[in-house]
Design brief:
Elements lengths: L6 E6 L3 H10 L6 E7 L2 H11 L3 E5 L7 H11 L5 E5 L6 H8 L3 E4 L4 H12 L4 E2 L1 H6 L9 H11 L4 H8 L3 H15 L4 H10 L4
Parallel strand pairs: 1-2, 1-3, 3-4, 4-5, 5-6
Length: about 200
């Protein structure tokens, strides 16, 4: 926070028109200063580490790095960084992932700028805020995956080969392939990486 009480914000969204509108409107609804803007997750990491804002306002779905992955990288360098995440579509499992990362606020991108400004102030003060529509849309599914299926999908998501996954889990490669096949069937996907991505989105990993 600046000496005159302004809350310093880094604003991140790949939708240029929305980002520009928020950058213009948010300062009109309270003591908020936009110190930097970014259009993707990689730029978000760079801008946040450079400016050290009071609050990072970041979109969930973006190119290069999504909001959650960007926040995870930022938190490695700034563990206490306050974060307000915005999303247009709150998929099942996303809220749980966000809470595990310690994200302070989660709002729909359909929220009015005045409401976003209120939540920025709440988050800057150390509070937490989850929008009702996000909460209702983020009902977490019970995972159909077994523990071993989840283990091999984590390896697949990290880009490891079948042999590498087998070695790390002390399993035979054929057994790993069987787990991957079962997981792909349960997620309705045709590749192990896509299966891992779907499982992660649904909060099963």
């Amino acid at each position: 926070m600046t000496a005159d009480g302004l809350i310093r914000v880094v604003l991140v969204d790949d939708e240029h028109l929305l980002r520009s509108a928020l950058a213009t409107l948010l300062p009109l609804h309270g003591t908020i200063e936009i110190v930097a803007e970014a259009a993707n997750g990689a730029e978000a990491v760079t801008a946040t580490l450079r400016y050290g804002p009071d609050v990072l306002v970041i979109d969930l779905e973006m190119p290069e790095l999504d909001g959650l992955d960007a926040v995870a990288r930022i938190r490695e360098q700034i563990p206490g960084q306050a974060v307000l995440m915005l999303t247009r579509h709150a998929r099942p499992g996303v809220l749980r992932r966000a809470l595990k990362l310690g994200i302070n606020g989660f709002l729909s991108k359909n929220a009015e700028p005045e409401e976003i400004a209120v939540v920025i102030r709440e988050v800057a003060a150390g509070g937490r805020w989850i929008g009702r529509d996000v909460l209702e849309a983020s009902v977490v599914d019970d995972s159909p995956l077994t523990e071993r299926e989840a283990d091999v999908l984590r390896g697949a998501y990290s880009g490891h080969s079948v042999k590498e996954i087998a070695r790390s889990l002390h399993l035979a490669p054929g057994t790993v392939r069987n787990y991957l096949s079962s997981a792909m069937q349960k997620t309705g996907t045709s590749t192990r990486y896509r299966a891992a991505h779907v499982a992660l989105e649904r909060g099963w990993l």
